Amino acid sequence: MNNANNARVYKMSFAGVYPHYIQKAEKKGRTKEEVDTVICWLTGYDLKTLQHQIDSKTNIETFFAEAPQLNPNVSKITGVICGYRVEEIEDPLMQKVRYLDKLIDELAKGKTMDKILRK
């Protein structure tokens, strides 16, 4: 992955990407609430602070920089997303972005919440 691409992703508004996560999940019979649960689990935001980030049109870089705490079980998220093994991505911010993509993907594929949340 090249740095110009990464920089473009980081400047995207989280509020712009968020509806796509919901749409992807809902197409497969999952809910916005489940998407929010996954995002909050990963980032440590609660529903109120997550909504604030969306309303503020925070970019992805700031969204992750301001995240209260990355879940300690994040290392249990493994596998391939967009052709990259998430556990091997060297850029820490891109890795967080791909962790979220991977979790949303698992949600859309019908995995149970317990599995997605690495319980």
TrEMBL record:
Q: Name one Pfam family in it.
A: DUF2200
Question: What protein does this entry describe?
Answer: DUF2200 domain-containing protein
Organism, scientific name:
Niabella drilacis (strain DSM 25811 / CCM 8410 / CCUG 62505 / LMG 26954 / E90)
Lineage, please? Bacteria, Pseudomonadati, Bacteroidota, Chitinophagia, Chitinophagales
